[in-house]
Amino acid sequence: MILSPLRRTWGIKMEITDFCKSLDFMKLGQAINRQNWQIALNTVQRMQRQSAETGDPIFDKNFTNLRHCLLHKDQLAAKNVLAVVIAKRAQILNHQEREEK
C-alpha cells in the first residue's frame, strides 16, 4: 500500500466517504469524454491507490475494468464502467448523508 507523506506521518487512514467526495471522479469523466487516455489512466491509477487506502474493495473490479477499457481506448465501454462507479459513489454518499441526519 502506498501512502501519501501526510498519511505516513500521522497514520491517517482515508475513509471511503472522503474518497467518494474526491474531485478525481469528475476529472476522470472529463478525461474520458475528451479521449485524453493518458490522463484518464493516471487518474484511475491514483484512484486505485486511494481506494486501497480505505481498505474497502468496493471499487476494485470496476477500476480494473476501467483501466482495461482505457488501454484499448474504448470510450463507450469506459463511459459505461464509469457510470457504474458513479452510481456506487452516489449510494455511498447518500447513505452517509442519511446517517448524519
Radius of gyration: 14 Å
Uncertain stretches = 1-11
Element string (H = helix, E = strand): HHHHHH
Structural class, by secondary structure, is mainly alpha
Q: What does the largest sheet look like?
A: none
Count of distinct strands = 0
Kindly state the percentage of residues in helix: over 70%
Strand content: under 5%
The separation of the N and C termini measures 34 Å
Average pLDDT figure: 89
Please identify the oligomeric state.
single chain
Give the overall shape: globular
- Counted by DSSP, the helix tally is 6
Number of domains: 1
List keywords for this structure.
single chain; 101 residues; mainly alpha; globular; disordered N terminus
Description:
The chain is mainly α and 101 residues long. It has one domain (14-100). 76% of the residues lie in helices and 0% in strands. It contains six helices and no strands. Helix 4 packs antiparallel against helix 5. The longest helix is centred in the last third of the chain and has 26 residues, at 75-100. The chain starts with a helix and ends with a helix. Residues 1-11 have low confidence and may be disordered.
How are the elements arranged and paired?
Blueprint: H1 5-10, H2 16-20, H3 24-33, H4 37-54, H5 60-71, H6 75-100
Helix pairs in contact: 3-4, 3-6, 4-5, 5-6
Write a short abstract of this structure.
The protein is mostly helical. The protein has six helices and no strands.
